[in-house]
């Protein structure tokens, strides 16, 4: 049970990370315009905000165990949101992917990393979809009887995955071959993420109808 739950949670999260969104675009722009140090600071800020949302998702989920009616209502909302998000990913996979301008990388303007960390934190914090996404993940995938210790492990893993992915993206953004390969793979990544989120949403809805 642990491994199936963990792998599904980690897999859905990883695919969502790889799909372009506000944070993804901010990281790409930061690395291109202001260099690697600034981009890494942005990734740290994004991770801190994601960690806050993950903690709220875990804490909120624990509280909702004592309010069955509200829990069921929020599970339906989470199912609908994940289904909508999955469909948006699938639709986005049909659009052409804009690749970064490699010339801009060579002329990146250096800015204080502290500003980058603040920009990343605010970008992720002020995007309500992040909070909804994590609550949806913990509502749809994590079983009600899963212990707090395991949930905390999941939370730490997810936060570390955010930092690792974002930092890797910043470090690789200056490599033209990597950027081109990522652009080519993006439709497949988005379709995979969309399908996985749709399956998770349907599974939650089916569980509620039993």
UniProtKB/TrEMBL annotation:
Membrane topology category: Multi-pass membrane protein
Keyword Membrane applies: yes
Subcellular location: Cell membrane
InterPro entries: LeuE-type
Entry keyword annotation includes Transmembrane: yes
UniProt cross-references to Pfam families, sorted A to Z: LysE
Keywords: Cell membrane, Membrane, Transmembrane, Transmembrane helix
Transmembrane annotation, as ranges: 37-58, 70-90, 154-173, 193-209
Subcellular location, principal: membrane
PANTHER family referenced in this protein's UniProt entry, alphabetically: ARGININE EXPORTER PROTEIN ARGO, LYSE FAMILY TRANSLOCATOR
Name under which the protein is recorded: Threonine/homoserine/homoserine lactone efflux protein
